[in-house]
Structure formats: structure tokens, C-alpha cells
Specification:
- By secondary structure, the chain is of the alpha+beta class.
- The chain is built from 8 helices and 11 strands.
- The longest helix is centred in the C-terminal third of the chain and has 70 residues.
- The radius of gyration is 52 Å and the shape is elongated.
- The protein starts with a helix and ends in a 10-residue tail after the last strand.
Length: 317
Amino acid sequence: MASADQEEKKAGSLLRRLLTFVVLLGALIGWTFVTGYYETNPGEEAVILRLGEFSRIDATPGPSVHLPYPLETSTIVRTQEIRQEEFGDVGNPAETKHETVMQTGDNAIVLLEFVVRYRIADPHFALYRVADPDAIVRDAAQAVMREVVARKAIEGILTGERFAVESEAEALLVEVLTSFDTGIEVTQVELLEVQPPTEVRGAFDDVVAANQDKNRQENEARAYENQVLPRAQATASELVESAEAYKQSRIAEAEGENARFLSLLTEYQKAPEITRKRLYLETMEEVLSKSEKIIMESGSVLPYLPIERPGAPKAAR
């Protein structure tokens, strides 16, 4: 009887232990599911800490589980979300004067409104290297923009150097944020509006209008140049080619005359008298062939007998 009671007590104790184990196991599984389950969507990343120390980054979309709290914790960060910070309001400079009013390189004042667009590229750095990413962007962007504007003249900022200001500010802002390991990637710096102070706005509007007229006249002059210059170049090329042809013809003619003279000289040196007589006869033939000839007979009543060349005018009677 005593042994049966002991067996029954052992069985009850074993059952209680088994139930306790099942309960603890169920509680552990439930606690793991409650504190260790997380799910990331496309464009999100999970930063996992183990006992408060950085462990890993999970960028795989979908449900996942890490060790239960307090062994591991997770924080979801949207790494593809484009955030933006706006600076200044030219329409209400009194409300945002500290952001809008800037000094240029020529000691003038300009009202400048701009926006910075960025995203979290490294969630670990953005969460645990900086206290407030948005505040870091605002402070760094204002400092960078003031530095860039301080290098420019107000006329350039208001007219043709807006793109240069945006590019320089973006490059400098990227350099600053990267040097501090903020994990922030700048995607764009854009100037929304740039105006001079109200007191001198009219004068600067005149400057802008004058620059526009200047650009228009330069474009018209460039168009006229493109129209006239090819024509002038063609004429010049034609004249050069004509002069070159005339030059070659004259050279060829001179070389021919020189060769003829040298050949005559050779013949003259061989037989001077014969050559001299032949030249005389050839010259007289050439001269007399171009003049009107009259044959006179001595003692005749007929004054002359015209021998006319074909096509020559008739002699007067």
C-alpha cells in the first residue's frame, strides 16, 4: 500500500514537472514571438542589437525572428524613403529670417529659399551615431549654403549661377555628412527662390531685364554670324582657289617662255646668222599679218591695190 502511494506521488510529481516544462516552453515561444518577431517591407531595413551592441542589419523583405528581448532588439528604418527639409520662406521673411537672409561675397544681402532632399543610407549610423538626423541635416545644410553664397556675387546668384550654387552646396553637404559618419545620403539641393531685399528689388529687376536683353542680342548676333560666316568662308575659298589657278597658269606660261628662249639660245649659238634671219622673218610675218598691205607699182597711174584680209574693214577710196 505504501509503495503504491509512493508510485502515485512520483507520477504526480513527474506530471507536474512535465506540465511546468510545457508551460515554460510555451511561454518562451510566446515571448519569442511577441518580442522577437519583426517584418520588413521593400525599402526597409532592420537594425538588430544583441545585448545592446550592434549585431547586424537585415535588409531581406518579409517576416523574420530574432532572439527574444532582452537578448536582441530590432528597429525598422525606411532606407528608400526620400525625406526633405525646407529652409526659409521668401514670401514671409520675417518668420524665417534666420534661414532666408544671407550675405553674398560682395557684401550684399540676398533672400534665399531652398530645399534639401535626402535618405537614410546606413541605418546603423543614422540611429546610433547621431542623435537627430533631421536636425543634423538642417544645421549642416544652412552652414554649407551660407558658405557657398558667401563666395558668390549677388548678381550671379540672381541670374546665371543658380545651378552652380546648387551643385557646390550639394557636394559640400555630402562631404560634411560623410565625414561625420551620419549614414545620410543627400540626393538633391534645390534653390526654390532667390530675391534681393525689398528695398532694392526694383533695381535688381532692371538688372535681370538688362541681362535678358543682353542674352537675346548675343543669340541674335550668334545666329547672324552662323548665317554670314559660312558664306564668307565659301567666297574666300573660291577666291583662294581662283588665285591658285591663276598662279599655276602664269608659272606654266613663264616656264614655257623660258624653255622656248633656252631652245632659241641653243640654236642661235649653233648658227647665229641663220637663227637671227629666221627670227627676223618670223617676227615680220607676225607683224605684217596683222596690218593692211598695199602694193605700189612704179610709174603706174593706179595709186594702190588693196589686198584685204578676210574679215578686215575695206580700205577707203
